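In response to reviewer comment 3 from the previous cycle, which asked for concrete evidence that the modeling workflow produces usable outputs, we include below a single protein chain processed end to end. The sequence was submitted unchanged, and the resulting structure tokens are shown without manual editing.
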Amino acid sequence: MNPHDSPRGLSFAIGAYLIWGLMPLYLYTLRDVPAGEVVAHRVLWSLPIALIVLRQNGQLETVAATLRKPRLVAMAGLTAVLITVNWLTYVWAVTHGQTVEAALGYYINPLFSIFLGWALLGERLSRPQLAAISLAVLAVVLLTTAAGGLPVVALTLTVTWGVYAYCKRRLPLPPNEGFTVEVLLLFVPAAGYLLWLEWTGAGHFGRSAGESLLLVGTGVITAVPLMLYANGAKLLRLSTIAVLQYLAPTMVFLIAVAIFHEPFAGVRLVAFPLIWAALVLYTATLIRRPARIG
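The workflow returned the following structure tokens.
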């Protein structure tokens, strides 16, 4: 991680978070298309973009070498499954009136990552981190009690993305090459599923030019922000990323409430401020850390 922020890195990271933040508006236009079909198109059309980027950067050989190593393929297969479940859950949530809960899932994610570090790596938790996790748990308990069940969408997004990020850090591949290997592994099942949909007459591709273009565009909104973020994060301080990462879920939350008119009342008026307070505690520990080192 760089000791100073690069303007180029900042523009890359902000660009990625803006695309992720606006993504619900794009996905909502595809609300008549089943989530599985949308995700299959995300895989199908993101692969050419990833391959073009790697070819331009001379990185294709790394992908070819990775595919000859069964252990790396197995690790990439696991991350591919995790990101698929994450995408499916997110698309379903946005197109079924659950965008507020999707935002909650991504708000909680940094706190879940702290928990993973403690549970799997034996990392010690500071008092502010313990307090932040406690506030997040309290918020989830309140939401569960009020709804009579767990916030499944939020927890699924939190767990799949958190474990995905944990596994990605242990996959000895640069970010662009790692993403390309994942979509390569997903390409055959995704293409097979789409062909089956077209053969049975259930597919949406080709029904109208506008909808077909939107489905092709899912490749752009999938590959571009992931690659922007991967390259931007290398040029930024951890404390900067800690603040920027809330841009996307905040935009998603505002879109859900102000544009989609999803309900934000009752226990959510208590639970969300608890999460936000937890994130302030968490972010403060990261912002103070570089100052101590310096």
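Residues 70-95 form the longest helix (26 residues). We consider this sufficient to address the reviewer's concern, and the full set will be provided in the supplementary archive.
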